[in-house]
Amino acid sequence: xxxxxxxxxxxxxxxxxxxxxxxxxxxxxxxxxxxxxxxxxxxxxxxxxxxxxxxxxxxxxxxxxxxxxxxxxxxxxxxxxxxxxxxxxxxxxxxxxxxxxxxxxxxxxxxxxxxxxxxxxxxxxxxxxxxxxxxxxxxxxxxxxxxxxxxxxxxxxxxxxxxxxxxxxxxxxxxxxxxxxxxxxxxxxxxx
Length: 192
Known about the structure:
Blueprint: H1 23-40, H2 45-62, H3 72-89, H4 91-95, H5 102-106, H6 114-133, H7 136-147, H8 152-159, H9 163-188
């Protein structure tokens, strides 16, 4: 396993807050959560594996700082947020223009017409462009609530904030989303 090299080599006395957590245990229990969080934060599919690994490198280095005062998922989401923000700040990320798999571009899902598939891809690309311009913290709440349809209580637990804070962040995210959509429409009449 790729994370075996990251495991501590010497046994240390565990603190009661971490309950003998190590990077392997965190990976086993929370890999799916980290992967979904990175997707919500706008990490492109081509970069997900690398950023996912970066998160667990940080977890390995900083797990000793987890004091148990919040849920492990809250702490992990904070790590994901900071790693995703650093990834987006990199200059190569802004200049790189990824190309899709050509074969996948021409394949329509079964039961869907090519026109409908094309329209769905265009709509998804337009949504991705708008989401990419949003602040990461607002984007995360917006995606969790509007796209993933998570209840506000679950979002609050993930973020480690009160439910009221989730609602205020969601309100701000919706305003930012509408502002970006309006700006795109003003420039070219559409999001495409």
